[in-house]
Specification:
Layout lengths: L11 E8 L6 E7 L4 E5 L5 H9 L8 H9 L6 H8 L1 H13 L6 E5 L5 H8 L3 E6 L2 H11 L3 E3 L2 H7 L4 E7 L8 H11 E12 L21 E2 L2 H10 L2 E5 L3 H4 L32 H11 L3 H11 L10 E8 L5
Helix pairs in contact: 3-4, 3-5, 7-8
The structure holds zinc ion (ZN).
Zinc ion binds next to loops.
InterPro entries: SAM-dependent_MTases_sf (IPR029063)
Keywords: Methyltransferase, Transferase
Protein name: Methyltransferase domain-containing protein
Length: 332
């Protein structure tokens, strides 16, 4: 590969060679200076790894919380609000749907809905949301758990049959897993109505000043890309789309725990036989306490009190990007 797939620049260098997510695999990490994007080489998905991760989701670090959220949304009174309080990504979607989007009863599609809890939560809050996933197993399980809000299809096939059908298309924590993001986003664009909005969330490089030197996101081939805001500006412009971003300030100003930005070394998670190397315990009491506070509507006050007690007035850099892409209709 000689050119950046996002911005077409040739200003690419190899910055690291890394062992992959599973023991025995190795990747080069390449960096595009022009659009501040890092990516893995080879850019290829390993479906076996996802089977291993999802069959052990409750104990795989990073995925265990998705497993918990999937059960938690059934236990709380307002699941969409619950998700928005617990994680920045869902806060940005909630904030957008409630405050940015002025359209009445928008048709919403969640692409790569996985366990299905966000689509379910949107429906519980009165929205007309459909979840799409390529995994038959994921869709069957989501339908069984939450109801008939899901469809199993390849996104490109689905886009050909549902041209211009959706007012909001949501892609949370998916784009960094995809070998060819431009092609993928191009299909998502064709699903949008003329005033439709595409929301894409992903881990952000922008929070780390030295992120041009190393890879500090899930090891490849699980994450294949690590994006900056510039990556999305370039991606949008190459697809004739406009690009804006959600401002995370209201969310991060309440946070009391600094994310770990100092350790750029990620550990391998699966051994050569595909077994999980470091497991986590999901019966964690801190999490149940958090859920109780959020469900009682007390989380915001709790965090405020903690910050006052610590005399903490600082703000934490956002560790996620939520890009809002819209079709450029050629009007000034
Ligand atoms: Zn580039």
């Amino acid at each position: 590969m000689t050119k950046c797939e996002i911005c077409n620049s040739s200003a690419i260098s190899v910055i690291q060679s890394l062992p992959g997510y599973q023991e025995g695999s190795f990747y080069d990490i390449k960096y595009c200076k022009n659009c501040n994007t890092s990516f893995a080489d080879p850019l290829a998905v390993d479906e076996n790894i996802y089977n291993k991760i999802y069959s052990n989701a409750h104990i795989v670090p990073g995925y265990d919380r998705y497993y918990r959220f999937a059960n938690d949304v059934l236990k709380v009174r307002n699941p969409f609000l619950f998700l928005s309080e617990i994680e920045d990504t869902y806060w940005s979607i909630y904030h957008f749907v409630k405050e940015h989007n002025k359209q009445v009863n928008p048709k919403i599609l969640e692409v790569g809905c996985g366990l299905g809890y966000l689509t379910y939560s949107l429906n519980k809050d009165g929205y007309n949301a459909l979840g799409l996933d390529i995994s038959e197993k994921a869709v069957a399980e989501a339908k069984k758990k939450y109801g008939d809000y899901y469809v199993c299809a390849d996104v490109h096939d689905f886009a050909r049959q549902n041209h211009g059908q959706f007012d909001i298309v949501i892609l949370t924590e998916v784009i960094e897993h995809i070998p060819n993001p431009k092609n993928f986003v191009s299909s998502l664009k064709s699903l949008l109505s003329s005033s439709g909005k595409l929301l894409i969330t992903t881990p952000s490089k922008d929070a780390e000043p030295d992120a041009s030197q190393y890879w500090n996101t899930e090891l490849p081939p699980v994450h294949l890309w690590w994006f900056s805001k510039n990556s999305f500006k370039e991606l949008a412009s190459s697809l004739n789309m406009n690009c804006d971003f959600i401002d995370f300030t209201p969310f991060v100003s309440r946070q009391t725990n600094y994310p770990k930005l100092s350790d750029p070394w990620r550990t391998q998670t699966l051994n050569r036989n595909g077994q999980v190397l470091f497991t986590v315990d999901h019966s964690d009491i801190k999490h149940s306490l958090k859920r109780g506070l959020i469900d009682a509507g007390l989380m915001t006050y709790f965090k405020r009190v903690i910050k006052i007690l610590r005399k903490d007035t600082s703000s934490i850099p956002a560790t996620k990007i939520t890009a809002i892409l819209t079709i450029d209709n050629g009007q000034p």
